[in-house]
Specification:
The strands form 2 sheets. This protein has a two-stranded parallel sheet with strand order 1-2. It has a two-stranded parallel ribbon with strand order 3-4. The radius of gyration is 17 Å and the shape is globular. Helix 3 links the parallel strand 3 and strand 4. Helix content is 43%, strand content 13%. By secondary structure, the chain is of the alpha/beta class. The chain contains 4 helices and 4 strands.
């Protein structure tokens, strides 16, 4: 059975290249062939990632879709892909182990900002869904 790998991610932060284009060489180096790789490099957020991937894939009943993203971003990603009727299996790309300390270092502030970003994103997603915007 043939597998496809779809990399989704545009360039919302205006770096030198889109996120999907940045990850393609990593996959090629690990044996993914160019014929099995689909690059979606236009999306600028999680909702657009899901929308654009949904337009690429038309899964058959016996096919599996595996969604890979960071552990902190997984819940919002699953909601977005579900909104487009894509039944995905979650596979996290990283898990950070929390460390309890008395004084917060720079990582603590970064973690707090990441958590706040995801909480706001989840709230926005749910409000937009309720209003029929997503």
């Amino acid at each position: 059975m043939r597998s496809r790998v779809i990399i989704s991610g545009g360039n919302p932060q205006h770096h030198e290249q889109a996120e999907a284009d940045n990850y393609a060489p990593f996959l090629f180096a690990r044996g993914v062939s160019a014929s099995d790789l689909v690059i979606e490099n236009e999306s600028l957020n999680t909702y657009q990632n899901a929308r654009n991937v949904a337009s690429i894939v038309q899964p058959e009943p016996d096919e599996s879709l595996i969604l890979t993203t960071s552990v902190y971003h997984m819940e919002r990603s699953l909601l977005a892909f579900d909104a487009f009727g894509l039944d995905t299996q979650a596979f996290t790309s990283n898990v950070r182990q929390p460390q309890a300390t008395f004084f917060t270092g720079s990582c603590g502030f970064i973690d707090a900002e990441t958590a706040l970003h995801e909480l706001v994103g989840l709230a926005r997603f749910r409000v937009y869904r309720r209003l029929g915007l997503y």
